[in-house]
Amino acid sequence: MSAERRSGWEPVLEGAPSKRFACSYDGHFAQQLELNRPVIERFLKIASLDGRLLLNGHRSSQLQSAPDINPDGSTANKRGLQWSKKSTLETRENNRLLLVKPDEHGWIVSVSGNVITDRLMQRLDATSRSIAPQFAAKFNACLKNGLKEALLRDKLTFVKDPYLFGRIATSGVILQTFTLAFRDPYFSGPIFMALNMLCLIRANVVGRDSGDKTPEKNRGFGIDPFDLFLNKIVNYHRRTVEHPLERLSLPVEIDRLLLGYLYLDAQRIKRNPLVRLSPSPTAQNP
User: Fold this and answer.
1) In-domain check, residue 245
2) Number of domains making up the chain
């Protein structure tokens, strides 16, 4: 086992899928890129997304001023500047650097290697091989932004959580009880706080430990439609619990959103990228 593999860095084309993460990117410079797997896995554990996250690539279908670049960084063929006359929504979407989409297994973060290459070659007026370091830096920025977008949409949109409104409303009620406890610490404040804590314990401690599934896990299995409707208005269930203390946390997982963002920003401050150019001579000179 190489020193890079022991330190956590692994080639993009050789990464084994895990419960939380998989990589199928095989686009530009794929043979020269390495993933900081421990950092990515740690972020995904903090984020606790609904399903696994897949990193892949997509090709531009409109702008092709850059030559085709093989996974090892070599040039496949050269083309002049060509502009397609098509201007459809699908074409505009394909020409984005980054696409983040949900699927039945979780989330897909798609980075366009040829769009990155095209923009770098236009801006730097350089050859394909000479832009490899800049490509890796841009790929790293796109992946970081993709992880943040997937986390934001997972926690604060209805894409993966049809009960989001109920969780937000319930979280607001819980926070309001703390304010009430300060205003009236002798009677109504403690009573309302105790009621909310009992509801949290029932939903996230007793219910989970006894095997009682949350309404969103029971959709389509004979659950009273009124209960499902009620949980869209008032919902004490927390979608994920990674630590026992999280059972008493707010139903809306704003803590995961903040901690995930802070973790990625801390890695940037420490200059610990998610993606880097392989330091091995064989990768640099295929």
Assistant:
1) no
2) 2
| Residue 176 CB-half CA count within 13 A | 8
Q: Which residue has the higher pLDDT, 29 or 85?
A: 29
Q: Are residues 186 and 107 in the same domain?
A: no
Helices (H) and strands (E) in the chain, counts: 11, 9
User: Which has the higher per-residue pLDDT, 244 or 136?
Assistant: 136
- What phi and psi, each to the nearest 5 degrees, are found at residue 111? -110, 130
Range of the domain at 181: 164-238
182: which residues sit within 8 A by CB, 6+ positions away?
189
Which pLDDT tens digit goes with each residue over 46-62?
A: 999 999 999 999 876 54
Phi, psi dihedrals of residue 21, rounded to the nearest 5° = -145, 145
Q: CA angle 261-264-267, nearest 5°?
A: 150
Domain co-membership, 22 together with 148 = yes
Kindly state whether residues 23 and 123 are assigned to the same domain.
yes
- Cα 123 to Cα 58, 127, 170, 234, distances in angstroms: 21, 11, 50, 52
DSSP class of 286: -
Full strand arrangement of the beta sheet holding 9-11: 9-11, 33-36, 275-277
Q: How far apart are CA 199 and CA 39, in angstroms?
A: 35
> Residue 28 is encoded by which pair of tokens?
């530009």
Domain check: are 171 and 38 in the same one?
no
**Do the bridges between strand 75-77 and strand 68-69 make them parallel or antiparallel, or are there none, so unpaired?**
antiparallel
98, 215: one domain: no
Question: Does any domain span residue 255?
Answer: no
Mean of the per-residue pLDDT values for the chain? 76
Question: Between these two residues, 1 and 58, which has the higher pLDDT value?
Answer: 58
Q: pLDDT for 257-279, tens place per residue? A: 999 999 999 999 999 999 999 88
